[in-house]
Design a protein that fits this description.
6-stranded mixed sheet; alpha+beta; 44% strand; globular; 4 helices; Nuclear Transport Factor 2, Chain: A
Length: 133
């Protein structure tokens, strides 16, 4: 089952990259618990509960605050019901024009093929610097 979880998470990132939010949100459990890294700009809503909260509090803000934002994983670690995605965020801040290439680690828990928990770890200083004048 765990290799299936890795495939599910890989498909989630691919859909996100293509802007297919209905697919991404459809992979989330109705009561998903989503947490942004401490000190990340969108951590002010932690925890986001449910796909609608994630859409409004995280994804919607990404679309406004960044040009060309991407979350690109370069490795997946299979831990059974947990998948860890390692990668980089890239994009340009719409407020400053500054570019970012910041490391991330996402710890994603699944049950029954749905994402039940998401925990972000990221280079918060680099992201905040890019967003600040």
């Amino acid at each position: 089952m765990s290799q299936e979880n890795v495939k599910t998470i890989a498909s989630m990132y691919e859909a996100f990259a293509q802007g297919d939010m209905p697919y991404v949100l459809g992979l989330m459990h109705p009561k998903i618990e989503w947490r942004e890294a401490d000190n990340f700009p969108y951590a002010d809503g932690n925890p986001y509960i449910g796909p609608d909260a994630v859409l409004a509090g995280v994804f919607g803000r990404l679309g406004v605050d960044w040009d060309g934002f991407a979350a690109t994983p370069h490795d997946y670690l299979d831990a059974g019901e947990v998948v860890i995605a390692l990668g980089h965020y890239t994009g340009s801040s719409t407020a400053t024009g500054k570019k970012v290439k910041a490391q991330f680690a996402h710890v994603i828990t699944l049950a029954g093929g749905k994402v039940t928990k998401f925990q972000q770890y990221a280079d918060t200083a680099q992201v905040r610097d890019a967003m600040s004048a």
